[in-house]
Amino acid sequence: MNATLEFRNFDNIKKALNFFKQQKNWDKIFKEAFEEWRVEIENTAKELLGRKVNDVTGKLKDSIYTIIDEDGDLAIKSYHKAAQIIDKGGFSRFPNWNSQTIKQYAKEYNQSPFVVARGIFQNQPFQEATMFSWGALFYHKEDIKNEIFIIAQKRKNKAIASGTY
Question: What is the pTM of this model?
Answer without folding.
Answer: 0.74
